[in-house]
Write a structure and sequence with these properties.
Elements lengths: L8 H7 L1 H14 L1 H7 L2 E2 H8 L3 H13 L3 E4 L2 E4 L1 H6 L11 H16 L1 H7 L13 H6 L2 H25 L7 E5 L5 H9 L4 E6 L4 H10 L6 E5 L12 E5 L7 H14 L5 E6 L10 H13 L8 H11 L3 E8 L2 E7 L2
Helix pairs in contact: 2-7, 7-10, 10-11, 13-15
């Protein structure tokens, strides 16, 4: 059988993919989709509304058309349906994607510029690079950057959070503590779907105001409270279930195991730990999103890395959990559950 002759098309698409990515991210930063949601416009009018220089504006707008992000008819631009639904800052759905893409533009894009250095040296290139603080202390020290980061965590996690609220059996439990809660969307979605539960969001104290604002916006300020602290050095709150959503991948192996051990120690018999992440497949060859996320953790944290469901279950067993299992959750995310018996 004759093997097909290879072409460079796929390699070219991968290698030049940053151009399309940055065009999208700059369009979000400039507010293109928000502006067009107010009303269609021709090129000169749109350029004027956005405050752009005429030299590159036409190519920019038409690039967005070619990428399927805008539609153009008789010289008038309007948003494509998905861009209008998710990239207009004035629509509620923007919070579930826009914050993440804003963070990708302002933070991750620059960090990935230094990926070759990280691969050669093993050192991250994030906010902590220019200070003596660790990754998250440096990030949390800047209120504006922190708010954007916490909102971006809601964006990357929202679909999985809603799935967890339905998929996990919460019926026999009364309290849930979401560890490393960020803006609090996991706890919010779980409590909205399970009215019998009360919850605690645990994170560094600087996250408190953002968390409390989000809980109030969803009418949960009486059932959902914030606890500020450091989960490596402070006691865990009392709860029937501890959740770790997109948390364990931030830390080195020793700290991953420590968090699971502390959860086991704080849980009552019959309590559970619920972990989810973009888990790497056991063969480490299929879930490209999870592998890229692991690479991102290597680039932005001091010791973080992705992991497989099998590895997480082994760590849970080592921590003392008697029964563990894993299952797919949503998109690239999977869940691992451990029961204290």
């Amino acid at each position: 059988m004759t093997r097909p002759v290879p072409t460079p098309d796929r390699l070219l698409e991968l290698g030049m993919g940053f151009q399309a990515s940055k065009a999208l991210l700059s369009a979000i930063e400039l507010g293109v989709f928000t502006e067009l949601a107010k009303g269609p416009a021709d090129g000169p009018a749109l350029r004027e509304r956005l405050g752009l220089h005429p030299r590159a504006a036409a190519d920019f707008f038409d690039t967005l058309v070619a990428l399927g992000l805008l539609r153009r008819a008789e010289g008038v631009y309007r948003n494509a349906d998905d861009a209008d639904a998710f990239l207009d800052r004035d629509k509620p759905a923007y919070a579930h994607l826009g914050g993440l893409l804003e963070m990708a533009n302002s933070r991750l894009y620059g960090i990935y510029h230094h990926l070759t250095d990280t691969l050669r040296t093993g050192l991250p290139h994030d906010e902590s690079s220019a200070s003596e603080l660790d990754t998250y202390d440096a990030l949390y020290a800047d209120p504006a950057r922190l708010k954007q980061f916490l909102a971006s965590m809601t964006g990357v996690s929202h679909t999985a959070n809603r799935a967890i609220a339905r998929q996990v059996s919460w019926r026999d439990h009364r309290t849930v503590a979401d560890m490393g809660t960020a803006q609090g969307d996991l706890a919010v979605q779980v409590l909205l779907a399970n009215p019998h539960l009360t919850g605690i969001g645990f994170d560094l104290p600087a996250a408190g105001p953002v968390f409390e604002e989000y809980a109030r916006a969803h009418g949960l300020n009486e059932r959902l409270t914030f606890a500020g602290g450091d989960f490596f050095t402070d006691d865990f709150p009392r709860a029937d279930i501890f959740t770790f959503g997109h948390i364990l991948h931030n830390w080195d192996l020793e700290k991953k195991k420590l968090l699971l051990k502390k959860a086991w120690q704080a849980l009552p018999t019959g309590g559970a730990v619920v972990v989810y992440d973009s888990l790497i497949d056991d063969d480490r060859s299929e879930n490209a999103f999870a592998l890229l996320m692991s690479l991102t953790m290597r680039a932005v944290t001091d010791g973080g890395f992705g992991y497989t469901a099998r590895e997480c279950r082994d760590w849970m067993t080592e921590a003392g959990f008697g029964r563990t299992w894993s299952e797919h959750l949503a998109g690239p995310d999977s869940i691992v559950v451990g029961i204290k018996e």
